[in-house]
């Protein structure tokens, strides 16, 4: 027996180790390798060819599909004429801030002819995210879907749909978007609005030279499909609907939500919404359509409508449907804030969640536009904003300025002085009637590269208060490196004495981009459990161009697992 034991024990130990290795491999997920080549590609839209910047010659760019727990290794080679970075919008990037992507925040740009490999793991996220350029206005054409399926062997918390279709809403300029923003930066005026909206890169039937390429989504009668709707537009919130069909919302920003039914979605740039759509109508062709939600009174906007076609593929439809015009949906009015609000306030988490209740950092950030006086000695051609000014934007009256010689994360990690300060104000320096008539003495923000420092593990509440400086509008505010709970929103000025009664601390939705209502406020909470430098900004690119942003510096915790990883060897240099 003793002899048998001496033989059996090594064998059993081997099998235990083998099983543990299998389990560890299953837990760690797969690794997906991709090559992204940034290049100029001739793209024809609205009757004209443009040399658009694309990934791998595709517009929109490739869809990435992974499972929760998988790792992505993406080598980006820049063969375009512009500097570029790629941001993986909504990915938590736990300890991997070097892979987050915003230019001069977490990395220096990838110069023409150079490359950089992004490495990160999806941890605890399922649903729809997306990726896009985060350098100047390149994301007008450099973007694509990032779809995160449940871990292998796990299921959706709803019946498995028959098909899944990404629906990427975009904006198209009949010009080079880089030229558009450079002209606006030079003149100080607002940039030209887009010439079209697109669905999966195509404007649709209502635009010239576009009908033959309209996006078509096929369905069979009776089936339930999943639409993964992404607002990849640069500067415009959008309403989206499908003629004669209800949309059952089941997820947003790669978090599941308590399902609810609606006829229309409103998405700010950066936001995603997963909806189930049942093909329960008479077999025919039905338009999907999107147009602007334009909340800024008097501001110019693109008032066109993009369409795609939901086409039933049943036998009774195959010969006749193509000859008939698709059914057109009813879209809300451009300024229908009531519909936008009714939609955004329906979101709930599927069950009770752990919202921070004890708060360590209670912050109040104003969010809005401003005007800079014309600099002394400047030409009037450089001050073509209202009354000879230049447009600006700010949080707490600080207009965010990007560094140019180092990224903020690099400066923090290496202790390089003079790149940023950590005196971003926790509250406005001056209290005023934020959503009312604001004195013009408060219209001019100061410029600076100011960060707000958070200790690891700090429980944070931020009141995002919209202002009426120059004009009030809805602002989609995105926080990098984190999801946050939206515990309340409302109109007017936030009142801590009365509005705290509106806080949902039971089942608030988990998002990465919050729509701050026009002339209103939103309250978010999160735990600072991801060390690094994390940008928070308006996802209307015109506004971040003007300075509507700030960054949190989250310190390392105690252990290695609470600390930022070392930068990769191929990290771009400025």
UniProtKB/TrEMBL annotation:
Which coenzymes or cofactors are required?
Answer: Cu cation
Q: Which PROSITE patterns match?
A: MULTICOPPER_OXIDASE1, MULTICOPPER_OXIDASE2
Q: Which stretches make up the Plastocyanin-like domain?
A: 38-152, 164-314, 424-556
- Entry GO terms, CC: apoplast
The source's superkingdom equals Eukaryota
* Signal peptide stretch: 1-29
Entry's cofactor comment: Binds 4 Cu cations per monomer.
User: Main EC class of this protein?
Assistant: oxidoreductase
Question: Mainly resides where?
Answer: secreted
Q: What is its EC number?
A: 1.10.3.2
Q: Which UniProt keywords apply?
A: Apoplast, Copper, Glycoprotein, Lignin degradation, Metal-binding, Oxidoreductase, Repeat, Secreted, Signal
Q: GO terms for biological process?
A: lignin catabolic process
Q: Which InterPro entries match?
A: Cu-oxidase-like_N, Cu-oxidase_2nd, Cu-oxidase_C, Cu-oxidase_fam, Cu_oxidase_CS, Cu_oxidase_Cu_BS, Cupredoxin, CuRO_1_LCC
The record's GO molecular-function terms, alphabetically, read: copper ion binding; hydroquinone:oxygen oxidoreductase activity
Q: Please indicate if the UniProt record lists Iron-sulfur as a keyword.
A: no
UniProt subcellular location:
Secreted, Extracellular space, Apoplast
Q: Which reaction does it catalyse?
A: 4 hydroquinone + O2 = 4 benzosemiquinone + 2 H2O
The similarity annotation says: Belongs to the multicopper oxidase family.
Q: What is its biological role?
A: Lignin degradation and detoxification of lignin-derived products.
What this protein is called in its record is: Laccase
Q: Which organism is it from?
A: Anisodus acutangulus
